[in-house]
Specification:
single chain; about 600 residues; alpha+beta; Threonyl-tRNA Synthetase, Chain A, domain 2; BirA Bifunctional Protein, domain 2; eight-stranded mixed beta sheet; five-stranded antiparallel beta sheet; disordered N terminus
């Protein structure tokens, strides 16, 4: 539910929102009404629409579980079928506070008191009325509802899960119970969503990462701190190496920075004021305050600032893949997608304003090339802009932001890309071009990003000497291709369901001698493959051939090479293709030539079988 606390206050007329938002928003009211009918002493808080439905946070006097879901759903369908309507009521903040105090709803009282402190004098309540005009439920809300609850599809929603959530995200406050609902306009769309979730479970990167021996976590090391195995590390290095290959061809240089810094660096950049509570703080024996780096850009400014630059020295392009650290809350950690230690393939370009276009387009080319090569579809473009109604969240002035946003809008237009604009999604120091993609089961993800930063060069007084011999303020371009390698890998692993392209596979071929008499030839094959850079492993004949084939299937190895008498005599291999399950006989020479070519060209589909 989009409550008054989450934005500017609504007037008595409802805001214009899309139909799906309206459906999910209205359903959140139905959920809260149902819970209060079943458990009248429950405290209600907030419940916004989300991408797949809505949720609502409650403080129950007695715990509930997923066994209560059917009862809540039954109550919700009963409310929908009775056809309640919505009625808006505008109250003074004083009257609204008195209203909720009388009903012992402390969270609503706090929300309105906060609004009053910000200068709001009125709030809106939305009542649910039955056919006789009787009030059945009321909530503090900005609006955006169906006219009649019968417009909601009674078979288009399902309570999915419950989770713990701290009030206002503060772990020192009340721990609430959050109920999540999947909600769609039709039963068929809900069914399709539920089927997608089932497929997502099979592809869960945590499950696949364990099965394929790619990464692990240790209680002794700590939650949110992934440990990469040799196979997983190889994959990371191959992906990162490809990004570097693309960058090096466009004039980037590698740099290296430490993992900690004095707090003064982040005070100057503005990060300390904005994100101090998300930093890992370090106090030295001498009493100096340091922090583990949560990002790399402030460090990189100091490499640029280490000497006076001429306009002839620009652009300066720095690239580095290095680990950053953020003190995420334990309840928000999730596999590789939300961690406390993550590696960024970070790059920063220091240039003049008239060079921004060329630098943006170079990065854009890298993004397009990388994501096509690893097997994602067409990328959508989002211009992430600042929220003009909450400018205190950002560094700089409205004039600087307009200049930066106009520049990236012009770039996207000249590129010929279709794009959408999203106010409020910018970084606190500058607007972004975000690249969105859908994975193989239809989920949308934000992946690469390019950011134009006019504010940090101001904060650090970064300049070059121009043609007139005067100091000229420069700008920064931030570029992340994968971004967090951990988060990218979680998306990519689920996208390919563990079936990597040949060039990325940690083991590209399992060698399976049929019997011990074929193991000498297997060693010859392994030596020949290694000479040509093909990663292989012999599974000796101590286990049955069927068991070894199943092992290859489980590890999703692209090629299984079966070696028996015929292959030994002909100096060939029988190749089983993991994807197609087809088996073909080829000479060892042909196998090596085609495989080396596929790896070199980073071909998505193997040529053999």
């Amino acid at each position: 539910m989009q409550h008054a606390t989450l934005g500017s206050m609504a007037s008595a007329s409802e805001p214009q929102v899309d139909d799906l938002y309206t459906l999910r928003h209205s359903l959140a009211h139905v959920l809260a009404q149902s819970v209060l009918k079943l458990w009248p002493d429950t405290q209600i808080t907030i419940g916004p629409p989300i991408d797949t439905g809505c949720y609502y946070d409650f403080l129950f006097k007695q715990p509930i579980s997923d066994t209560d879901f059917k009862q809540i759903e039954k109550e919700m369908r009963g409310i929908i079928n009775k056809g309640q309507t919505f009625e808006v009521e505008v109250l003074s903040t004083a009257d609204a506070i008195a209203y909720w105090k009388e009903r012992n709803q402390k969270f609503k009282v706090e929300l309105i008191e906060d609004l009053a402190k910000k200068g709001e004098t009125e709030v809106t309540h939305y009542k649910n009325l039955d056919a006789n005009g009787n009030e059945m439920f009321v909530d503090l809300c900005k609006g955006g509802h169906v006219e009649n609850l019968k417009e909601l599809p009674a078979d288009g929603f399902k309570i999915m899960s419950l989770a713990g959530a701290y009030w206002r995200g503060d772990e020192t406050r009340d721990q609430l119970t959050r109920l999540y609902i999947a909600a769609f306009p039709t039963k068929d769309e809900l069914k399709a969503h539920l089927q997608m979730l089932e497929e997502a479970k099979k592809r869960d990167h945590r499950k696949l990462g364990s099965e394929m021996d790619l990464f692990t976590f240790s209680e002794l090391v700590g939650p949110g701190l992934p440990l990469w195995t040799p196979r997983g590390t190889l994959l990371r290095n191959l992906l990162d190496g490809y990004v570097w290959e693309l960058r090096e061809a466009r004039g980037y240089s590698r740099v290296t920075i430490p993992h900690i810094t004095k707090k003064e660096l982040y005070e100057t950049s503005g990060h300390w004021q904005k994100f101090s509570d998300q930093l890992f703080h370090i106090t030295t024996r001498e009493g100096h305050e340091f922090a583990m780096k949560p990002m790399n850009c402030p460090h990189h400014t100091q490499i640029y600032a280490s000497s006076q630059r001429s306009y002839k020295d620009l652009p300066q392009r720095y690239a580095e893949t290095t680990t950053c650290y953020r003190d995420e809350q334990s309840g928000e950690l999730h596999g590789l997608s939300r961690v406390r230690a993550f590696s960024q393939d970070d790059a920063h370009v220091f240039c003049r304003m008239n060079q921004v276009k060329e630098e943006f387009l170079k990065i854009w080319d890298i993004v397009d090339t990388f994501y096509a090569t690893v097997g994602f579809g067409e990328l959508d473009v989002r211009l992430s802009l600042h929220d003009p109604d909450n400018f205190d969240k950002y560094l700089g002035t409205p004039e600087l932001w307009k200049k930066a946003e106009d520049a990236i809008r012009e770039l996207a237009t000249e590129r010929g890309s279709k794009f959408i604009e999203e106010p409020g999604e910018a970084a606190f120091y500058g607007p972004k071009v975000d690249f969105m993609t859908k994975d193989s089961i239809g989920r949308e993800w934000q992946v690469a990003t390019i950011q134009l930063d006019i504010n940090m060069p101001e904060n650090f007084d970064l300049t070059c000497i121009n043609e007139q011999g005067e100091k000229e303020r420069i700008v920064m371009v931030h570029a992340a291709i994968m971004g967090s390698l951990e988060r990218f890998f979680s998306i990519y692993l689920e996208h390919v369901a563990g079936v990597f392209p040949l060039w990325l596979s940690p083991v590209q071929a399992y060698i399976l001698p049929v019997a011990d008499v074929h193991e000498e030839y297997a060693a010859e094959v392994a030596f020949s493959l290694k000479e040509k850079g093909i990663r292989s492993q012999i599974l000796d004949s101590s286990d049955s051939l069927g068991k070894r084939v199943r092992e290859g299937e489980k590890k999703k190895v692209p090629y299984l090479l079966v070696l028996g008498d015929k292959e030994k005599d002909s100096k060939g291999v029988t190749v089983r293709n993991f994807k197609t399950k087809e088996q073909v006989e080829v000479s060892l020479t042909d196998f090596i030539e085609k495989t080396v070519s596929d790896i070199k060209t980073r071909k998505l589909e193997p040529s053999i079988g």
